[in-house]
TrEMBL record:
<dbReference type="InterPro" id="IPR054613">
    <property type="entry name" value="Peptidase_S78_dom"/>
</dbReference>
<dbReference type="GO" id="GO:0006508">
    <property type="term" value="P:proteolysis"/>
</dbReference>
<dbReference type="Pfam" id="PF04586">
    <property type="entry name" value="Peptidase_S78"/>
</dbReference>
<feature type="domain" description="Prohead serine protease">
    <location>
        <begin position="3"/>
        <end position="118"/>
    </location>
</feature>
<keyword id="KW-0645">Protease</keyword>
<keyword id="KW-0378">Hydrolase</keyword>
<keyword id="KW-1188">Viral release from host cell</keyword>
<dbReference type="GO" id="GO:0008233">
    <property type="term" value="F:peptidase activity"/>
</dbReference>
<protein>
    <submittedName>
        <fullName>HK97 family phage prohead protease</fullName>
    </submittedName>
</protein>
Amino acid sequence: MRIQGYAALFDRVDRAGDVFRSGVFADAVPVPLLMQHQGKPVGEIWAIGEDARGLWIEACVVDPDVARMVRSGALRGLSVGYRALAARQGAWREVLRARLAEVSLVAVPMQAAARVETIIEI
């Protein structure tokens, strides 16, 4: 199955109190696609990049069990694993630049609107 969606959104406070700013993932390259930030990859990211809204991805989910959970709606959240390279602390931690380590399909994303938006059966 092929999925498309936003792994992170700009200018929104997540559940940990972090806010990603535009440009934070400007140098992003395809990274592993995991499930719940652990284990071996469950698919492959084909395209990744920032637009005005956030960090958009297109990926192929190859693990049949994970694909079934995405299809059923049980695993529709997206989340990023990253290392902050530049941040500013205020009321929230503004992440200005980060090194992306992985993108995960998750049941509960740190940002509620970071979700799989399109599923295409292949």
